[in-house]
Design brief:
single chain; alpha/beta; TIM Barrel; 11 helices; globular; binds phosphoenolpyruvate
């Protein structure tokens, strides 16, 4: 079976965080495109994307042109425009050819006060601008140890998606990213990843069965070429959000290969 099962196209996205200048971004995307082959992702069974700093977006789009490689931003404001100094709006991203946006990454929740309330507005705003949101959810180590993983995920998924009609739910990609696994080298076991991703799908299915079946749920947290095959083969894991390993073209291409 492909990573995403019969009906779902796997997504492997690289979250570059605050790494790479514009010139470095152009070079890394060009290298990726050459490794992944024509079609960007190399085949239609796997969609591949890079989530870059704002200043790299134009260069990434230019370097990826015609390849099929998707380009995502890492955040946006929920309003389409306004007096919000330092912010970037969804229509600004759409106009320069961006495919989607990461929303609610744990680093934004932890260091920049991103709230589920704001996310409940950002997710529909992204879709309204034609952007695919990659919504990140996940529990802390303390929450997992206290047996609160499902309660945490239920709260995040329910609130972050509350602004969407049922018919829009499957347009979102949800990234399950246990916070204790991000950038730590500690990866969720296949059982933990499957259980949490299956639970997220069930939450969406409770609103709409077809949406739950079509929704892409991806795993993130210390994904590397050596652990990717096992994680990407899980029935409810439809791809990966890759941080550190996405900064190395060969490592990222190896993870994409594992998703095929
Ligand atoms: C991330 O930044 O979303 C992430 C999963 O990072 P890493 O792969 O480095 O754990």
């Amino acid at each position: 079976m492909t990573a995403a099962g019969a009906a779902r196209t796997a997504l492997v996205a690289g979250n570059w965080k605050m790494y790479k200048t514009e010139a470095q971004a152009a070079e890394l995307v060009a290298r990726l495109v050459s490794l992944l082959g024509t079609g960007g992702s190399g085949d239609s069974a796997v969609e591949v994307g890079v989530c870059t700093p704002f200043t790299d977006l134009r260069a990434a789009v230019a370097s990826a042109a015609g390849s099929g490689l998707r380009v995502f931003a890492q955040n946006m404001h929920q309003e389409p425009e306004g007096a919000f100094t330092g912010e970037i709006a969804a229509p600004m991203l759409a106009e320069i050819g961006i495919d989607g946006v990461v929303l609610g990454h744990s680093e934004r929740r932890q260091y920049f006060g991103e709230t589920d309330r704001a996310l409940s507005a950002k997710v529909p705003a992204a879709l309204a601008a034609g952007l695919t949101p990659i919504l990140c959810v996940g529990e802390t180590e303390e929450q997992r140890n206290a047996g609160d993983t499902e309660r945490t995920l239920r709260h995040q998924v329910t609130q972050d998606l509350e602004g969407l009609a049922d018919s829009q739910l499957a347009e979102v990609v949800i990234a399950y990213e246990p916070i204790w696994a991000i950038g730590t080298g500690k990866v969720a076991t296949p059982e933990q990843a499957q259980e949490a991703c299956g639970f997220i799908r069930a939450l969406v299915s409770a609103r709409s069965d077809p949406a739950g079946a079509a929704l892409r749920v991806i795993y993130g947290g210390s994904v590397k070429p050596d652990n990717a095959p096992e994680l990407l083969a899980l029935p409810d894991v439809d791809g990966a959000l890759v941080g550190g390993a996405s900064l190395d073209a060969d490592a990222f291409a190896a993870i994409v290969a594992a998703a095929r």
